[in-house]
Amino acid sequence: MEIISENKCFGGAQGVYKHASNATQCDMTFAVFMPAQAKQTPVPVLWYLSGLTCTHENAMTKAFAQGFAAEHGLALVFPDTSPRGDDIANHDEYDLGQGAGFYVNATQKPWAPHFQMWDYVTDELPALVANEFNVRGDANGITGHSMGGHGALTIAMTLPDRYQSVSAFAPIANPTTSDWGRKQFSAYLGDDETTWVAHDASILMRDHGFHSPVLIDQGLGDNFLDLLKPQSLNDAMAARGQAGEYRMQDGYDHSYYFVQSFMEDHIKHHAALLS
Ligand SMILES: N[C@@H](CCC(=O)N[C@@H](CS)C(=O)NCC(=O)O)C(=O)O
Question: Could you list the residue ranges that cross the membrane (predicted)?
Answer without folding.
Answer: none
